[in-house]
Design goal:
The chain starts with 7 loop residues before the first helix and ends with a strand. It is an alpha+beta fold. The strands form 2 sheets. A 7-stranded antiparallel sheet has the order 1-9-6-11-4-3-2. It has 3 helices and 11 strands. A hairpin with a 5-residue loop joins strand 7 and strand 8. The structure holds N-oxalylglycine (OGA) and manganese (II) ion.
Length: 208
């Protein structure tokens, strides 16, 4: 037998993903780690230029603020700082676990910091491109300030179907430390109007 050890926390996430294609957890990272990641994002925001996020991929990128108003900075896995290294270590541990238990053939990912200024949003969309379907799991980690409240808006809405096939919106508040993982190929979603600067690391775990 192998030395494989079940991880009950990962199992919860995987159960959610299998049963309903999304999972919301608040303890993937510790409060201390969230604090470090938030401080890192704010530092990068001062030192490096976030760019207005575009829609589409290599075949044609466009900035369309009527669709998407966030600014982003991609993390560089080849040259991470100490805090980003911690982030990648944790995500890669989860990827490794998924590959040993679910045979999804996941192979790393791509991740960016995101900042939504007040007054912005991201209209309903799917995260996969027509010409590149490697994105498999979407991961959003909220790094908002500790005093974040639902009144600040910026909820993530997941468009799901009930047993009768009727569509409904599952609303997820962007609480600091919250991690949302969902099936990139199936779940359409949107970011509601933001009333307070909204911070996250968003990314995608991909297949070969
Ligand atoms: C995205 C996205 C959701 C969120 O960046 O593609 O849908 O809650 N983000 O920030
Ligand atoms: Mn998205």
């Amino acid at each position: 037998m192998s030395d494989f050890e079940l991880n009950p926390f990962y199992e919860l996430i995987i159960n959610d993903l299998v049963n309903r294609k999304y999972s919301v957890v608040d303890t993937f990272f510790s409060p201390k780690e969230i604090e470090l990641l938030r401080a890192n994002l704010k530092l990068k925001r001062e030192l490096q230029s976030f760019k207005k996020a575009a829609i589409g991929n290599n075949d044609g990128q466009q900035i369309v603020e009527e669709i998407r108003g966030d600014s982003i900075l991609w993390l560089d896995e080849e040259h991470p700082d100490e805090v980003e290294q911690m982030y990648f270590d944790r995500v890669n541990d989860f990827i490794q676990y998924m590959n040993r238990t679910c045979y999804l053939g996941l192979q790393g990912g791509e991740f960016h910091y995101a900042c939504y200024p007040k007054g912005t949003f991201y209209k309903r969309h799917l995260d996969v491109f027509h010409t590149d379907t490697r994105r498999t799991l979407s991961m959003v980690l909220y790094l908002n300030d500790e005093d974040w409240t639902p009144a600040y808006g910026g909820q993530l809405a997941l468009f799901l179907k009930n047993e009768q096939g009727v569509e409904y919106e599952e609303i997820v508040h962007a609480l600091p430390g919250r991690l949302v993982i969902f099936d990139s190929k199936i779940i359409e979603h949107e970011v509601k109007l933001v009333n307070q600067p909204r911070y996250s690391i968003t990314g995608w775990i991909k297949t070969r």
